[in-house]
Each structure stands twice: as structure tokens, then as C-alpha cells.
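User: I'm putting together a small comparison set for a docking exercise, and I want a reference complex before I start. The sequence is below, and the ligand is nicotinamide-adenine-dinucleotide. Could you produce the 3D structure with the ligand included, as C-alpha cells?
Assistant: Of course. I'll restate your input first, then give the C-alpha cells for the complex.
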Amino acid sequence: MLLENKVVIVTGAASPRGIGKATARVLAANGARVVILDLREEDAVAAARDLGEGHLGLACNVTRKEDCLVAVEGVLQKYGRVDGLINNAGITQPLRVMDIAAENFDAVVDVNLRGSLYMSQAVIPHMKKQSSGSIVCMSSVSAQRGGGIFGGPHYSAAKAGVLGLARAMARELGGDNVRVNSITPGLIQTDITGDKLTPEMRAEIIKGIPLNRLGNAEDVANACLYLISDLSSYLTGVTLDVNGGMLI
Ligand code: NAD
């Protein structure tokens, strides 16, 4: 199987309809040992149990460096290695530019951008030691188009920051055979977006999507599988647009 004997961490993967959980399922179905990290231990443990035997769920707030280090230590204790990291945890706030207060900015940048840095810092020394590893950073079409109905300008900025961070890490770590790539999902039906769309909003959005539908979590999960596995062994520093053609 594609990910036989590989250990892959997915952050923010306990949300039942989320991209992280769908990604965890796809990775597990392809042979990986999956580690689900999320804010609440019971949610992470339950989500890992849903995947079947041999997976792990741990509490980890990615905005706290200590949490990230302790979680990765737990992974190493259990499996002795870490092959992949998907920096998926994220939050949005539907604010307009003049309504963004300091605490809004901090919260959104902390989870989306600082969390991606801290989790990467926690795994990189081990990947370097192994001379192999793949990190995927979840950005968003909001970084490319600016705005969106669910994120605010601070979300766009944080997700654009994620792209820069990923490319810089890709350049720095290439010599260690650690690859770093990003995904920019378009509008994906999850709890972030799910029930908040009226039929009129949905129809209007779909008009701008050549593939004529919203994305689903599995569309993004399959892109994660590609970037985490050796199928993408000569890709680093790239951004995969999983958006149905929204930017054509
Ligand atoms: P979701 O809300 O379903 O899942 C996000 C998860 O992150 C939740 O399980 C939440 O508990 C967790 N989380 C939040 N803060 C955390 C923290 N500090 N530490 C650890 N975990 C934390 O969201 P989703 O739609 O599945 O989004 C997943 C990723 O994809 C996010 O980064 C999001 O910005 C990005 N994205 C989503 C869409 C979309 O349309 N849904 C589009 C583009 C990008």
C-alpha cells in the first residue's frame, strides 16, 4: 500500500465533517498509521478510534509550542518515527477589514500560521534525522483571491502567510529530503461552510466554478494523499489548487 509503515500527523482532524478527518480516513485506508491532533483529547481519541486499530488521537492546541512538542514526543514514543505532517487546523472569522480587532487578528493568525510553524518545528528535527519527510500546509483560495464569505481579510493574510512559510521551508529543507507543499482548497462543504450557505448563495458561488459543484472533503483528502506519499517525490514548494477551476 502507498503509505505502508508511514506515520502521518493530521492537525485539526477531529471535526466529523472536516477536511482533516476525511484526510485521516484516506491516509489510513492507504496503510498509514494516522495521528489525529485536536483541541479536545476525547474528540481526538474518538476520531482515531473511528479509523480502526493502530491509530492515535492526542490533544494538542497548535498555537502552543509546548503542546506541539509534547504531541510529537508521544508519536515518537508510540511509533518511533514521523513521516508526514498535515498542518490542517484552522479557524475563520467572517469580518470586514474595519471590524478586525487585535484579538481577532491574533486568534486567526495564531491558529492558521503560527500553528503551522510550531507543528513543523516539532517534526522537522526527526524528519531531518530520517532524511525523509513530507509536510503539507493547508492554505486557502482566500489567500489567492482575497476575502471570501467565511474568512475575513485577516484569514486571507494568515493563509497567504502559510504559502510563504511553506515555500521557505521547502527551500531550506530540500537538502534533507524533507518536502513541503501547500493546498489551496476552494469552497469545500464542511462545518466551516456547510449549513451556512443559503440555496441562493450556493447557486451564485457555483456559477463561478467550472466543475459546477462545491468541493467535498475527500477532494482535498486525495490531494493530501498525493503530496504525503512518494507519488509526489519530486514536488516541493508547490501549491495545489483544489478548487474546481475557480481561478481559471
Ligand atoms: P473544521 O472547522 O471542520 O475543522 C477545523 C479543525 O481544527 C477542528 O476540528 C478544530 O477543533 C481544529 N482546531 C481549531 N483550532 C485549533 C487549535 N488551536 N489547535 C488544534 N486544532 C484546532 O474546518 P475545515 O473546513 O475542515 O478546514 C480545515 C482546513 O482547511 C482549515 O485550515 C481551513 O482554513 C482550510 N480550508 C477550508 C475550506 C473550506 O471551504 N472548508 C476552504 C479553504 C481552506
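The domain at 7-241 is CATH 3.40.50.720 (Rossmann fold). The radius of gyration is 17 Å.
User: Thanks, that's exactly what I needed.
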